[in-house]
Amino acid sequence: MNDRNLLGPWIRRFMLEHMVAERNFSPNTQASYRDTLTLLLPFAAKLGGFAIDRMTVKDLSPTIVRQFLDHVECDRHCGGATRNLRLSALHSLARFIGMHSPVHLSWCSEVRSIPFKKTARTLIGYLEKSEMDALLAAPDRRTAIEARDYALLLFLYNSGARADEAAKLTIGRLQLTEPSTVRILGKGNKMRVCPLWPTTSSILTQLVAGRSADDTVFRGRTNQPMTRFGIHRVVTQYAKLVTGWRQEAFVQISAGGRTGV
């Protein structure tokens, strides 16, 4: 690094050396930190009148960071949780630079002194047993697509998996012989094992028959892996067919949260 004041080389080291090699952050965390910097750097360059490739560490002043956080909330209409998520990435970057460059310790302390904003915790909704039974009865299992939808809804009910976890689930993580289990890769690259009910195991066995262990379990109409947005759509679609649905539970479950009773 020729000029230790330039911000660009520090960001490169942070993303490759710290996030990947040292901390082994999950792909989702890496993407979140990357997106924060993608939003921040053009904003800071425009606000300060800097050339983005010549920005120095101190050009990213605490004042600009605070203005960026206000921009996230006011102009981009994000909530307090998203604002805090962006700030955590910047705290991590400041700490990395401060640890490797003592001349920037004062700047590091000022950035890391920017506080997180208190946010209200989201109330987690749930479904009554009768509501869940009605939801599972909604798909017409005589068609291939709706048979898949039934398997998906039953799996979410059984495992409590997040939409993103279900979307990325591969056949190799299913054990469909007794005792039937599924290994779910969750946040922070943490693996957990969940038992599967006999009914769930039987339905999933039919769904994945003849496919390789590397294939994702749930696939779309074009035989491509489903996304969490596709899973959201499926849950929303069948929820709207069920009468007597409690609106607060519908919002929580269809947003990709966990299902359960």
What does the model show?
The chain has 261 residues and is mostly helical. The protein has two domains: 7-112; 129-254, Intergrase catalytic core (hpI Integrase, Chain A, Orthogonal Bundle). It has eleven helices and three strands, in the order ααααααααβββααα. The protein has helices at residues 7-22, 27-48, 62-74, 80-100, 105-112, 129-137, 144-159, 163-167, 198-208, 228-239, 247-254, and strands at 174-175, 181-185, 191-195. A three-stranded antiparallel beta sheet has the order 1-2-3, with no helix packed on it. Helix 6 runs antiparallel to helix 7 (144-159). The chain is elongated. The termini are far apart. The mean pLDDT is 89.
Brief account:
Pfam families: Phage_int_SAM_1 (PF02899), Phage_integrase (PF00589). The protein is mainly alpha-helical and 261 residues long.
Q: How many strand units? A: 3
CATH class of the largest domain: Mainly Alpha
Biggest sheet features: 3 strands, antiparallel
CATH architecture of the largest domain: Orthogonal Bundle
Helix/strand-derived category reads mainly alpha
Unreliable stretches? none
Beta content comes to under 5%
Looking at the structure, what is the overall shape? elongated
Percent in helix:
40-55%
Examine the coordinates and then state which fold CATH places here, giving the name of the CATH topology of the largest domain.
Answer: hpI Integrase, Chain A
CATH H-tier superfamily of the largest domain = Intergrase catalytic core
Annotation field: number of helices: 11
Which sequence of SSEs, written as H and E, runs from N to C?
Answer: HHHHHHHHEEEHHH
Strand order within the widest beta sheet: 1-2-3
Give the C-alpha Rg.
Answer: 23 Å
Number of structurally distinct domains: 2
State the distance separating the first and last CA atoms: 56 Å
